[in-house]
What does this fold into?
Amino acid sequence: MNDKSSPFALKIRGLVKSFERPAVDGLDLSVPAGEFYTLLGPNGAGKTTTLRMVTGLLAPDRGSIAVFGVDALTDPIGARRIMAWISDEPMLYDQLTPVEYLDFVAGLWGVDAKLAEARARDLLSWLGLSPFANERCGQFSKGMRQKLALAGALAHEPKLIILDEPFTGLDAGSSRVVKDVLRERVRAGCSVIMTTHILEVAERMADRIGVMANGRLIADGRLDELRLRAGSGDASLEDTFLALVAQDRAAA
Amino acid sequence: MSAPGSLRWFAAHEARLAWRDWAWLMTRGGRARVGAAALGFIAFLLFMHVLAYHLLSHSTTPFDSADMRALAIVTGMLALGWSAMLSQAMELVTRAFYARGDLELILTSPAATARLFAVRIGAIAATIFFMSLVMAAPFINVQAGLFGSHWLSAYLVAAALAMFAVSAAIAIVGALFAIFGARRTRLVSQIVAAVIGAAFAIGLQFAAIASFGAMAAPRFAVIESLGFARDAAVLWPARAVFGEAAPLFSLFGLGTIALASAIAIFAPRFGRLVLAAGSVTRDASKKSPRQSRFRSSSPSQALRRKEWLLLLRDPWLMSQTLMQLLYLLPAGFLLWRSFFSESGVATFLAPILIMAAGQLGGGLAWLAVSGEDAPELIATAPVATAKVLRAKTEAVLIGVGAVFVPLVLMLAAVAPFAALVAAVGVAVAAGSATAIQYWFRAQAKRSHFRRRQISSRIATFAEALSSNGWAGVGAMAVTGTWLAAVPAVVVIAILAGVWTVSPSRGSTAA
It folds into this structure.
């Protein structure tokens, strides 16, 4: 059942996915609309698997996923229409130019050509890609590719942007641009869910932080709430994160 | 133990990498598949030997080096084989220049890189030699068993030809670098390689058509008709195959000298050329010839347009497809000639067109259906999988149509019924090949096009059987016999069988 007036950008209940061992193990997660949510966790915690299930790239074994009230499992097309996915390895077409790539994305999402062209011009300018707008992507650096993937994700104005390790391999300048773009999107009412291992980024940018370990959400809240839970006082997010993971390991 | 950085050390390193790469290709990383791969290889060798025996034991040709006709036939076969060797060697040499792999590690190390490149050039020669043996060895063995051990000298001839081919390939690619620069050499080299690979076979067909009026004329009669003297240098390789000592050792010696010279001249320069090629991939940016404009389009239109754009802009694919289209040139030549004659030869063209359409359709379908470089973008777009596949299939079939419709129209002017058969056959063969690729689709990078045949052997064989089968159906149908229905039913049964074992059977589209 779809509930498009849902106050949650993402609502996950009892999500399970196993490969050779459980990767996601009965996950419950709610992200309110308009929030910048960061998902942290050690390697193999199930963060990427969770996000890939949300975007429809992986089928869950059990559980439910709703994106702005749209059931992503029974109405995947409806859910895809309002969200965008960016992986840590942006996949582009080497033989297309940024303009052609954005034209293609606009076609896939059914965006009107005039609107798409105006948006593409703004996005390419914003991301510093205008001088390369008509050059083929094959020779682009990692940062340029990541920025173009971000432009593609924003070209259809999604309500929810999901990013998996978007800052991996980016230089300081490119990182700053991507952060600015994401912040602006959240200010404009968009929701962002992001995984990262760069805790400083999570500390500065996230409204709320979720910590996953062994396929489960072991903590969730604002940074001060996480500190309280970890009993880490005024410690950094890094210390708080490590304390929470250690507590979970000890309890297991 | 050899000293690190020595020729032997690099050779051992290269041999280990080559062995593991080959083993992985055969077993796809599964230890359990090692036995199956070994059994499959042995079965293939046995099959080839049985086939060779079947063909050679019935031969009535007096195979004697004194017989000029026999020398002409062997010379023709060697020339065919050598053009294929040269084409393959050019591919490998070009790839060696442009592949990054471990070259940055080696080029930044204090080791003498000329030694590594010497080993790599030698490895290319060995690869070409062993690849030629896959097809040639069973025939050499059977010939030696039936007619005398002197036929084993063909192994030395194959080795010599491989060395000549690699030497020539290095010289050609080096010359292309000098003429076209690092930026364009890759494309030009691949096209030249494709042309060389097909040139001799096609040249013979052109000559046969021009001289004898049909592609079916004895191909090597053209060589015989040139009237070479028995001691002409061009006949040395053939005489060496017959086991004549002087031509054999001369050929092998000259081949060794050619390869050694190529190594001595090019190994020290190889690093510089590799760096030049590497700087292209970093610095050079390709501007689109004109500014693109946004067009309002449905997802299907956007997908089709993207597929066509990528197909047109893929120089590597262009050289791959060019090879297939080159084989159509003699058919086109024959068609052009038949405008001026009443020979009725145009009816031979229908099966050729059908077979080529099947092969081209299969290649394009793999690129469109499996070779998707941004699978996650497509998978997260609000477009049903079935719609995506339909749009990609349409892109392939329209592409095949663009190539074959003009030829079929030309044929229609000469032989309307043959054109009708060809039109139906082209559509069915391309459709069948596309369906096979659809059933066996597996996500891959477009750059893995060449490896597609290894990723699914069933799909590869099915594609070949389907194309050849439909060509056979066309060949019978064009004569007007209803018996064409028999092979058609067989091909349909094969396709049905392939579908039942395909991994996509029963999968549902989102």
Q: What stands out?
A: The longest helix of chain B spans residues 153-212. Chain B has 19 helices and no strands.
